Amino acid sequence: METFFSFLERRTDDCSSLLCVGLDPHIPDLKAPTADSALDFCLNLVKATAPYAAAFKPNAAFFEVFGAEGWKILKQVIEAIHEESNRLGSKIPVILDAKRGDIASTEEAYAKSTFENLGVDCITLSPYLGKDSIEPFIKDREKGVFLLCKTSNPDSGDVQDLMLESGDPLYMHIAKLAQTWNEKNNIGLVVGATHIETMKRVREAAPDLWFLVPDVGTQGGDLEAVLKTGLRKDGSGMLINVSRGISRSENPRKAAVELRDRIVNIQFQMKH
Amino acid sequence: METFFSFLERRTDDCSSLLCVGLDPHIPDLKAPTADSALDFCLNLVKATAPYAAAFKPNAAFFEVFGAEGWKILKQVIEAIHEESNRLGSKIPVILDAKRGDIASTEEAYAKSTFENLGVDCITLSPYLGKDSIEPFIKDREKGVFLLCKTSNPDSGDVQDLMLESGDPLYMHIAKLAQTWNEKNNIGLVVGATHIETMKRVREAAPDLWFLVPDVGTQGGDLEAVLKTGLRKDGSGMLINVSRGISRSENPRKAAVELRDRIVNIQFQMKH
């Protein structure tokens, strides 16, 4: 039976890419910072990079900042990704980076907004409220979730690195919980690229889970080390998200191809 | 100098109320579940309860579920609260219940969306990403934050109750961090009403902080016990949020007056 990750794996096979293209219409990147220029920015990126994208990841904040107009263009961007999918004959998953986390009745509204109304396939969530806050998003096995485990920001350790009585830091416990909760093969983990030692431990704790790794381009992290540490034994299981590293390059298409190829090359070296 | 909490305290003095009115246009509550009926639902609630509301708390999810239209009506609801404030001659704070939590550059976009574009005064945030994820929201001391500490949902213990090596459960550590981070008097805590023993410990750890207590009406929790446990030594320092307990009553105005008076009565008993 199709699950979110079997769908993602079909796509990674089709495009032989683990590259996730982040759609973050940052105001400094926009010529005129309006919803229209954000839409242009995203549509150009989608068009240029779709053949090489295992997934697209729009970041909710950079749409929400344009208010009602922002939500309208977010839907248009998602529809454009669906059109590119049709053109390519290979459906590209859309991951909404929203990091939601609330009580179940509220999460049901967010899940309806995300999966039904926007038509995306996957969302990022915070684990702070526990399992019942995740359930509205994982009950349909064709929809997926990436749970925050270890993030890449400088102060991520304030909470995520706290040592538990059990001997694990909190992020390790979250990795183990996610592995337990993943009964329908639709839960993955967000693991930052800036902490290689951490990624190694998380991979040991969650050998089967997909990792979403932001933002290899601009938040530091060496691509080769990240892949060698985080890939599963089957040589897959990671989405390498790049946002500004592609969108701010002179030729986003070329930047996406090069990144895709670098990743494939490292995967190949590891297999042989 | 004015801070978010000095502003809130002026309002609680003006209306002699610690009642926070939750604006959750749940789809089951709406005659015809459209953005228009959600707007009517909220405008009626605001009009009926404004004189007795220390604050209003719209829940982002129940607007977002209507897409672009939802963000439009959210802004209209906030403007209606500002109009009621003008009519009453006492500004009523608006707290956006959104539980955001992301890396700083993303949080800056959320902060702009929340404080500048929507014009709200305060937001709920998740602590999982650490201090730099909170900073974009607290740099202006007139804007405030309620940080998730201990939530009221059944599985809140999955993560929040984890015992740390230090001997504290995680939620206690969050309370202590918030007390430390509160240099500008604009950070409070979300503490659920369903765990009285927990609330007692959090109050001991954070004697000065404001608590936002959801949802006393429908998520259980005895009002008297909650107030006696959670109020600060000065007899204030808690916002008692009620959503469905008011919106689903036959006469929301009457329900708000009664709740306001019950709270005042318990505060009075405690002082004498």
Detailed description of the structure:
2 copies of one chain form a homodimer. In chain A, helix 9 links the parallel strand 6 (187-191) and strand 7. In chain A, helix 2 (35-49) packs parallel to helix 4 and helix 5 runs parallel beside helix 6. Chain A has an 8-stranded parallel β-sheet. Chain A is globular, with a radius of gyration of 17 Å. Chain A has one domain (4-267): TIM Barrel. Chain A has helices at 4-15, 35-49, 61-64, 67-88, 104-117, 131-138, 157-160, 170-181, 196-205, 223-230, 244-247, 252-271, and strands at residues 19-23, 55-58, 95-100, 122-125, 144-150, 187-191, 211-213, 238-242. In chain A, 49% of the residues lie in helices and 14% in strands. Chain A is of the alpha/beta class and 272 residues long.
In brief:
Two copies of one chain form a homodimer. With 272 residues, the first copy, chain A, is α/β, with parallel strands linked by helices. Helices cover 49% and strands 14% of the residues of chain A.
